[in-house]
Write a structure and sequence with these properties.
This protein has helices at residues 4-20, 36-42, 109-113; strands at 27-35, 59-70, 82-91, 97-103, 119-121. With 123 residues, it is of the alpha+beta class. The protein has one domain. It starts with a helix and ends with a strand.
Length: 123
């Protein structure tokens, strides 16, 4: 279960990140508490290991939102990446952003529920 203060923290980070990518009103926001490794596996990033080489068990929130996102991170003379789905992970209990990405493929709520209980948030 996500507390009211955690919801506020997640939404604040989402609004800031989305705004930096040109999306003022992200929608269809889903959040699931999980581990960094499990989130990476679900999002097809592969396995995330900690410093000792074990799967990274850091507690995170996996957040997904829909909108129109344009990354400002691109080499010179290369088109900026765009996507309709933003996903990122925050370390549980902090506003520390670990990983983020944009793309065209939205995870279903059922897919996210394989990690734990999913909460739908509204801005």
């Amino acid at each position: 279960m996500i507390s009211a203060s955690q919801r506020a923290q997640i939404l604040e980070k989402l609004q800031s990140l989305a705004a930096s990518m040109g999306e003022p009103a992200p929608r269809e926001i889903l959040v699931v508490p999980t581990t960094r490794d499990a989130a990476a596996r679900l999002c097809s990033h592969g396995v995330t290991n900690d410093a000792s080489g074990r799967p990274d068990a850091t507690g995170v929130f996996l957040v997904q939102a829909c909108g129109s996102f344009t990354s400002r991170r691109a080499p010179p003379r290369v088109p900026s990446p765009t996507g309709t789905v933003l996903r990122f992970t925050l370390i549980t209990g902090t506003d520390h952003l670990l990983d983020w990405g944009i793309g065209p493929n939205q995870l279903s709520q059922a897919q996210m529920e394989t990690l734990g209980p999913v909460s739908a948030l509204e801005t």
